């Protein structure tokens, strides 16, 4: 039986749902416009979506915030949080929405609606450069995996388990971490054998450190990254959907995707994702 070691506190989707039921709901668009600002939670350590350059936030979301501030008739107030508490803060009503690279999952869709996706979130494995033990998904059998606590990567690990079982293997130990820089450090020093992340941050990592890491094969089916917000904010969802259409039609979304992701994603869904059924249909699951 595989062992799961948690190096940081993990927030279950049940905890998210409970926090949402015990606190006031997040503001919908009319309340945001009345008070004059929208509160958003962003992440501190998930390049290229959100990261810190010294004491200043940087990344794709920083540029998106600039566009949103120009588009909106109200102020945008940003707080930078660690990933492990971010979604719970949004579900509890402390923030109106999350602006980060949040993957769409079945579990999260029970608590959140998602704006139209802005990137692919198919998962790939990463290994140390030159590690000849790993040349395919089958070679991951029994090896130690590093993954972020509370992330969508955990919810889609059953897909990797099926792949391994089909080749006669099994999932090994799973080490959970608060942030990816810690995971990559442990991969580099050999504490874990491989790491799983979605395609955008994988490409970013390999382009920056090709002498240290190598990308491997896909370990999940298709997926998306998008911005989650509480289900009781339908007007805000429509507003952010219109904002995404504005970015797409002006060409600015493709420009920012090329800048930060190294490619544009021209075939992404252009409508919100509000149910598991919609998600599965969009992703061909």
Would you write up a description of this structure?
Belongs to the bacterial solute-binding protein 3 family. Residues 1-26 form the signal peptide. The chain has helices at 13-22, 29-35, 60-71, 83-91, 152-155, 157-166, 180-188, 199-208, 234-250, 252-261, 276-283; strands spanning 4-6, 37-43, 45-46, 50-53, 56-58, 75-81, 97-98, 102-103, 112-114, 119-120, 123-128, 145-148, 174-177, 194-198, 213-218, 224-226, 228-230. The protein has 285 residues and is α/β, with parallel strands linked by helices. The longest helix has 17 residues, at 234-250. The radius of gyration is 19 Å and the shape is globular.
Can you describe this structure in just a few lines?
With 285 residues, the protein is of the alpha/beta class. The protein contains eleven helices and 17 strands.
Specify Rg, calculated over alpha carbons: 19 Å
Quickly name the level 1 CATH class of the largest domain. Alpha Beta
Q: Give the overall silhouette.
A: globular
**Percent range for β-strand residues:** 15-25%
Low-confidence stretches: 1-24
CATH third-level topology of the largest domain: D-Maltodextrin-Binding Protein, domain 2
CATH superfamily descriptor of the largest domain: Periplasmic binding protein-like II
Total tally of structural domains: 2
User: What's the order of the H and E elements?
Assistant: EHHEEEEHEHEEEEEEHHEHEHEEEHHH
User: How many DSSP H or I helices?
Assistant: 11
Largest sheet features: 6 strands, mixed
Helix content: 25-40%
Distance between the termini: 28 Å
Number of DSSP strand runs = 17
Mean pLDDT: 88
Which structural class best describes the helix and strand composition? alpha/beta
Order of strands in the sheet with most strands: 1-13-12-14-11-15
